[in-house]
């Protein structure tokens, strides 16, 4: 169904339900590609260098390790993926990634500031869904 999918991955969200939704979206198309994309905020990058003397490559390696359980699940489902990291302002970097590439759909997990509010999107999810020129699927 969809061949080229962008998955902006946020370590503070739950992505437990996402692999199964991705599997449904690709419908056994062997040519599909899922881009797992994580943005390292400029503030986090600057703090890591200044206070912990960790440079971007080190941060990327740490995040890649934390991403392994999710990627293992994608492997178990036979999904094709690539992992990309960038540093920048989160919303703008994701929107630039969407606009500069030929994605069929963007899949996002939702994070809400207050869990007791059921139907409110997180700030980044809301802005991406509102400003994206591609369809956005939000997985709860």
UniProtKB/TrEMBL annotation:
Q: Where would one find coiled-coil regions in this protein?
A: none
Record-annotated UspA domain positions: 1-140
* Pfam families with a match to the protein in the record: Usp
Q: Which family does it belong to?
A: Belongs to the universal stress protein A family.
Q: Write down what this protein is called.
A: Nucleotide-binding universal stress UspA family protein
Source organism of this protein record: Salinicoccus kekensis
